[in-house]
């Protein structure tokens, strides 16, 4: 692959996972330059160029039909993440996990490997969903600090953008009664987001993470067929709860998450929103509602937020020396990388 010129002020990013979100992130990075994409890893292998992966569109096209191993100059490997880290962990500044988290330990185990067996000391951002997984990660806080890694977890849409919105909205109140998250997702084919849909099915009655991990694609097809492609999700085990508790906003049991996913239609079946109900210091009860525009896709809301937290993470890590585990409810996302505003404050005003 031909070399591209890197923007020296931007971090060198590796995307772990080249499925639905991973591929969409490559496209987003072309429009919102928050990082130099230098590596992509999937189950089949990895592709790495310290000078930047040049033809993102080629990657996108190749991956639609094939896998990383099919890309020119890629390294084929059945232990792609381990091999990639062994050779390149000091050559990257940031990692985005666009990986499935099936079972719950999958991403915590990769993180353990990064801490114990690599020299990486940059920023990790994920779009993790499960409460149990975030709890597991929180146990790594001091080890992450020792390795000078800043890990921002729960940085997708929910958890992520909606959790952060709840944390901001809570400021009107002295007590929070409830945080109610409802999401609507519309996609035309579940195979574009295999892990996302499997993980959603795991929340349905009579299913769990272990069971869906073992299901074949035909079984998933059949399950979706039986439901006319619609997944109705209630009382989900979503980390928005523990994240808002860790941030001191409210107890986890005051947070509920549910939604509807249409796997056959890109239109959202319901508008995604978060309602924060609380009491003001004057004793009045009120509800703030934050609703996402129906035109925004899951990929725009998840990956956009991931980039916002990547920007924030790089700023906090590089300029303020912050490391350890933080969640999206504790840190404000940044729309742009640190150096993009070259004007002084006086010029802006
Ligand atoms: P996907 O199934 O489309 O892609 C997963 C990718 O990971 C594939 O490229 C696969 O090859 C790779 N992979 C799997 N096992 C691997 C391994 N052992 N080593 C290297 N690579 C491996 O996934 P997706 O639908 O894009 O979802 C990614 C994650 O994003 C999921 O965990 C999902 O829950 C999460 N997500 C979060 C939100 C949110 O709002 N927080 C929303 C949507 C998705």
What does this molecule look like?
By secondary structure, this protein is an alpha/beta fold. The protein folds into two domains: 7-157 and 299-348, Rossmann fold, CATH 3.40.50; 161-294, no CATH class. It is 36% helix and 21% strand. The protein contains 13 helices and 13 strands. It has helices at residues 20-31, 56-65, 80-88, 106-117, 131-138, 141-146, 161-169, 194-201, 209-214, 217-226, 240-246, 298-320, 345-348; strands spanning 12-16, 36-42, 45-48, 75-76, 94-97, 123-126, 150-153, 175-186, 230-233, 255-262, 273-279, 285-291, 324-327. An eight-stranded mixed beta sheet has the order 4-3-2-1-5-6-7-13, sandwiched between helices. Helix 1 packs antiparallel against helix 2, helix 1 packs across helix 12 and helix 3 packs parallel to helix 4. Bound molecules: nicotinamide-adenine-dinucleotide. Residues 17-22, 41-43, 80-81, 98-101, 127, 129, 156-160, 193-196, 199, 298, 302 line the site of nicotinamide-adenine-dinucleotide.
